[in-house]
Amino acid sequence: MPTAFPGSGQTPEPDTDPSDFPATALVTFSGWDTASKTLQAGGLVSGTTDTSGTCTFVATKGGTTRTLTSKAEASASSVNCAQVSFPANQVSTGTWSITLEYSVGSKSTTSEPMTAEVP
Prior knowledge:
mainly beta; five-stranded antiparallel sheet; four-stranded antiparallel sheet; about 0% helix; about 55% strand; elongated
């Protein structure tokens, strides 16, 4: 069952993303799905409605990195990145850190990491 996003998502800190891409990526959920035996994640990109980009979810644990891309889908004021599922044979037991990168051409933005436990 995916875990809830901790906190309100609000921060008094300014956005320090050094990129010139005027959007902010956010992992909205991540967690282990017992039924499908997959580590799932989803996200969105606020500040743009340009769906020509690529959503790339990166799961890391120690020296292991797994990457999946998903479809960018339009919504009223943002871009939704379709859910991805990392199969059990690609993710070992433990705490994984998941980020979302959204890139359009040479510009990109990367989210803060969200952690998820694989049992």
